[in-house]
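Intended use. Records like the one below are meant for learning the mapping from a protein sequence to its folded structure. Do not use them to infer anything beyond what is encoded.
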Amino acid sequence: MVDFAMDIYKNLHGSEQVPQEMFDRRTAVVARLKELQTTAAPIVNFLTDETSVKQLRNDKAWNLQFLQENGIGTDGVEALYHYAKFQFDCGNYSGAAEFLYHYRTLTEDTQKSISALWGKFAAEILMQDWDPAMDDLNRLRDLIDNSKLSQLEQMQHRTWLMHWGLYVFFNHENGLNAIIDLFFQEKFLNAIQCNAPHLLRYLAIAVIINQRRRPMLKDLIRIIQQEKYTYHDPVTEFLENLFVDYDFEGAQQKLRECEDVIANDFFLVATGEEFVENARLFIFETYCRIHQCIDICLLADKLNMQQEDAERWVVNLIRNARLNAKIDSQQGTVVMGMQLPSIYEQIIERTKGLSSRTYALANAVVGTAGGPDK
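Structure written out for the chain above:
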């Protein structure tokens, strides 16, 4: 990283000369690297031997005993941790991830094991290795839930996990489903409401562009209404205008603002076109619930589109079986057919929240059974 900083300095100043403190810093880093390499050499050599690695088990106590038989003590295991961290600081993320993985299989220090998993997670994000990163995100979620940390510390860790997870959610192929599943969990939702209400923007975007998760829209709007006094942005206001106030003019204005917000958001910039498409569909569907016959010219205005573009857009919806309607070209109107929710949507709606209610009921029963009158 020091060499990288020196290259940037040369490019910025157009000179081959760099400050002396950069050379001093590089000398110190190289010396520290050699020191850690020497200290960690025994265990690194052990881990590069496939025959030795295959003899390791899931039993950490047995592994430590096996290492001691090969001349490696607990100090050697801790040296691996520090060496992996230094590799991360130097920008060798693949090496850091591999060493941290092995460290977690060997150490009995719970706190450092959690720290190593956070480091491995960060390295995978920086390498854009999204599948292992998603796996580690789920491991961190479980570790936080099962840890002996205080409630406040657990909430803080969940807040960190949600922020770090944004890199994964908006790059992994199943990320939109994952962010909805995670953020709607009660403990994570509490963390959002207490520590990070701004994350509602990302949850809202995920629900809007993920058509399979539309049944979650009602719960999302309820949460947005609860938090609107502490946080709001064009995305949350768009949903509120459309589904709470039925203010189509306001929703149209907020949709324009949403385009600017998404274009300047690191995580959302790639979702811009998909968001606008689905947001227009939301406006159209909501408007159709109120009107059976819709003037295309008026509809184009509501969708912030040209009349020809709006008509073509409606034709594509009908052609793709996403809309039960027909176009009257002579009158310039869209005539809506009756749209009933599918059997799948009805089942999802009726069973929604059943798991959480069952869990709450089971806890209540267990709490009652464990009371003084047992």
